[in-house]
Amino acid sequence: MKERDLFRQTAHWMGTVTVFIILLLTGGCQSQGNGNTIDGTLLGPNGRNVEVELKKWMTGKDGKSGQFIAIDATYSDAEGRFNLQPQRPLPMDFYQIMVSKTKALVVIMDSTKNLEIEATVPDAGYILNAQIKGFDAAQEATEYYAKAMPLQDRKSMMRVGMQQAKNAQRRQALSVQSVEVQAEITAWAKSFLNDHEGSLACLGPLEHLDIRPNMVVFKEVLKSTKSALGGGAYHQVLSSVIQGEEAKMQAATKARTIPKGNGANKPRAKKNSRYTVGDQAPDIVMNDPTGKQRKLSDLRGKVVLVDFWASWCGPCRRENPSVVRAYQQYNSKGFEIFSVSLDKDLERWKGAIAQDQLEWPNHVCDLKGWSNEAARAYGVSSIPHAVLIDQEGTIVATHLRGGALVAKLQELLP
User: Fold this and answer.
1) What backbone torsions phi and psi does residue 246 show, to the nearest 5 degrees?
2) What percent helix, strand, coil does the chain show, rounded to 5?
3) How many CB atoms lie within 10 A of CB 336?
4) Burial, 243: exposed, middle or buried (Cβ in 10 Å; 0-12, 13-18, 19+)?
5) Could you report the average pLDDT of every consecutive run of 10 residues in the chain (414 residues)?
6) Sign of dihedral through CA atoms 137, 140, 145, 148?
7) What are the residue ranges spanned by the domains of the chain?
8) How far apart are CA 199 and CA 355, in angstroms?
9) Alpha-carbon distance 144 to 133, whole Å?
């Protein structure tokens, strides 16, 4: 098993953003003398006479890439006892204790902390449910990852299974399961944050939340932990990534205007502009993949995104992860999506819904392609195209993409 990085590169943090996140688990401490001391007992046969390393993430020149370096190492004895006494000054940060090069445990500490750790070393994977004394935040981090990492591993296995599945039915089943597990991970991360407000361990759950739909949460946690963790690599990397994402979101929300030259040329009209801000959105009545009739008007009282797309539309498919994140963030606050597909093939349409994990129930299509009745009624001439409707059925925004959708939802559903 390859050594896990303290920070992980994640695609759902908008694909182009590289961020290194904590990947966990270490063991042991009993305070002895002055200075930073980690004393521990590794229980079970896998903890006896094995190498134990304390590792620190060193950031590269670009502020994002980097590598782990061992800042202290020792061996446990025949009873699993070990002692680490790093000699260099250590800022308050997340560190990794690595057992036998493959089994990890995360600890939060600095040069002033003396930790006592007792943990059972598994045959493989993360060290779960360690007991850490000497610093409350270190124990709180262990409690978070003890539940989060098994869920994350389950999700990773499902994604591998989806890639290896030989039929669409199996892929769809695994896709549904993956969405459910991700919902569990997100719920656990948010629950931990709510229950441990102000704890330094709250940086950990950010690993399992998408940045853009949770931008406010990220900024609040980074602000509350800056005085203690601002000198550490993890906090610095996350702060850098947040700044980059904010810049991208601001750029995405800027109004695009067409130069008028000397004033003689009229601005060009936008595509898909039969209805615009302030208009009442026409009702859409159409069947979903099971043949059930669904009406846009049935969602009155909700903020609704009418999303025109198709399985064969590359830009639509690339936009779908952003739409999914917005739904997951704001659905509980009163946000719904009404997806109108311009497909002609039922199975391709259904397959794309499953593959892209479009988990909302309101998917409709009349299998007429560009002759789709709703698309013609709305004057849709290119896709993807999005129309955002408020609780009264009035169009409040059009031509939304990525961060622009999130920004508008933050305004409507704070």
Assistant:
1) -60, -40
2) 40, 20, 40
3) 20
4) exposed
5) 36 33 34 67 96 88 72 96 92 94 93 95 91 96 92 86 80 78 89 95 90 83 95 88 76 43 42 75 92 91 92 90 89 92 93 92 94 90 90 85 80 78
6) negative
7) 285-412
8) 37
9) 16
**Rounded Cα–Cα distance for residues 138 and 107 (Å):** 5
Q: Tokens for 242? A: 């947040």
CA distances from 245 to 18, 36, 118, 239, 402 (A): 11, 36, 39, 10, 11
The number of beta carbons lying within 10 Å of the beta carbon of residue 390 is 15
Strands 103-109 and 395-398: unpaired
Positive/negative CA dihedral, 386, 391, 395, 398: negative
**Which residues have CB under 8 Å from 92's CB, separation 6+?**
108, 109, 110, 200, 228, 229, 231, 232
- Asked if 324 and 291 touch (Cβ cutoff 8 Å), the reply is no
Q: Token pair of 190, please?
A: 């948010």
**Into which CATH architecture does domain 285-412 fall?**
3-Layer(aba) Sandwich (3.40)
Distance CA 110, CA 103 (A): 22
Helices 168-195 and 346-355: crossing angle in degrees, nearest 10, is 30
